[in-house]
Amino acid sequence: MSDTAPNAGVQANDDASPADGAGKLQPQVYVISGPTAVGKGTIVARLRRLHPEIFVSCSATTRAPRPGETDGLSYYFISNEEFDRLTASGGLLEWASVHGDRYGTPREPVEKALEQGRPVILEIDLQGARQVRTSYPQAVDIFLAPPSWDELVHRLQGRGTETRAQQDRRLVTARDELAAEDEFDHVVVNEDIEATVRKMVDLMRL
Ligand code: 5GP
Known about the structure:
Elements: E1 10-12, E2 29-33, H1 40-50, E3 55-56, E4 60-61, E5 76-77, H2 80-88, E6 92-98, E7 101-106, H3 107-115, E8 120-123, H4 126-135, E9 140-145, H5 149-159, H6 164-179, E10 186-189, H7 193-204
Parallel strand pairs: 2-8, 2-9, 3-8, 4-5, 9-10
Antiparallel strand pairs: 1-10, 4-7, 6-7
This protein binds guanosine-5'-monophosphate.
């Protein structure tokens, strides 16, 4: 993979020929996935700050807001009934149940951003990433991985936003997600935020 070989820490998966530009024309949709607490939100926020042209999709969720989260910025926090209505009307590009709550990508804002020629980032879970491979086969998906399992546990416990039971549940999911990293076009190990952002900028050719 000529585009990634010089970047230590970026592994291009073997079946990732689309990133050469051979199979995926104009890769404007970027899926960023990875286990809990790996730092997806931080990386995406940095990318957007560096490249304001990027459209970062704001997901809808039935999860309750955490302290510091803002409706319409962090997520659209909606009721189960509203979520049902969105799925029934085809208003979501993809959606999944994660840790007992539902999360989904509102379709219209993404389509609008693509029409405007803006790169789009979807920060979604593994189930969502699989759905996007069907709806946007040209999308490039990137798996953000922790440097080690112990570091992931440390980051999750350190952020202190979940109860012990919620942490355990997230770690069970994280095992499954890590086992699926080979499905992704690229794997980026998030050891250092700045280095990770640079690798992502390279991958996305921003
Ligand atoms: P959190 O509750 O920590 O904000 O997110 C839990 C998980 O839901 C994360 O893996 C996150 O990537 C995922 N997620 C957030 N928004 C969406 C979405 O719109 N669709 C899907 N499939 N997953 C999402």
